[in-house]
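Hey Z.,

So I finally got round to the glutathione thing we talked about over coffee. Here's the setup:
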Amino acid sequence: MTRSRIAGLAVAVAAAMATTAIPAVAGPRLDAVKARGQIVCGVNTGLAGFALADSAGRWTGIDVDVCKALAAIMFGDAGKVRYVPLNTQQRFTALQTGEVDILSRNTTWTLSRDTQIGLNFAATLYYDGQGFMVPKKLGVKSARELDGAAVCVQPGTTTELNLADYFRANTMKFKPVVIENLQEVNSAFFAGRCDVLTTDASGLAAVLSKDAPNKGADHVILPELISKEPLGPAVAQGDEQWIDIVRWTVFALLEAEEYGITSANVDKLAKETTNPNIARILGKTPGMGKAIGLPEDWVVRAVKAVGNYGEMWERNIKPLGLPRGLNNLWTKGGLMYAPPIR
Ligand SMILES: N[C@@H](CCC(=O)N[C@@H](CS)C(=O)NCC(=O)O)C(=O)O
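And the result:
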């Protein structure tokens, strides 16, 4: 190719990029949240590691951190969140009716939820799988020994569906003990009204560490994981900018971990970095904020508020005794892989 043709091509590419760079249109949800001065966040009624309020009403958990990060991005204040605790049955209606801006509540991304009930999943925040817990005194070592068991389960969950599939696939029978309220289903199990408690493995670990008698010493989680439970935040369908903001906030927290950006060094890096990727992520090289309709320092704000994904994990999930496993970064043998911020 001649030099003038190369130059001509470069001009054409630049022109194409200029005409295709459509500025982010303000979406109705972002405008509404800004006008309200607060984000309304649907969370669990109380699940250690994910969303739990203390006696003073202060919420913590990895799902809670997503909402705190969003509030920090939009208002420079992670406290500008109103939390709406939702049980398994209420959670989707709250999103459909617009009562909450986001559902950040250990909710599994499935095809039917993503397509048929008016919501969209933004990202996977936590890769989980369904497990079983039993009293040690039953002497059960594997889920394959549970034929004929009474199983405590919450309705309106993937848990309930996987349970039926698993027993059918293994030609075993079970007696479902279906209880809507989280505390009640756990109490029923510990009172011996069922032989088995089933939910996401993270939920079992949370219950074992927080609700079990005798510090959990009398109960055991069986080795089998019977399903895939990619848990993540969801929003109502029909607002592209809003889902982009939620999705890229999760990605940004992952990117921050990958590039070694932490709550402790983010301010310094934002001023001093010479790494082009970090400069773009932190807005030292402007453009990414404008592209998504947010301030250029959006990632700085998020990481300062909640830390990077690894910090979120250490603070919220590690105390439950769970290994990082699939939730490690892709560079460390896990599935956590964010598309590039560029
Ligand atoms: N990931 C599953 C299960 C999620 C779920 O709701 N699990 C229960 C048991 S850990 C829970 O969080 N309950 C809390 C509540 O009902 O308030 C789903 O999305 O269906």
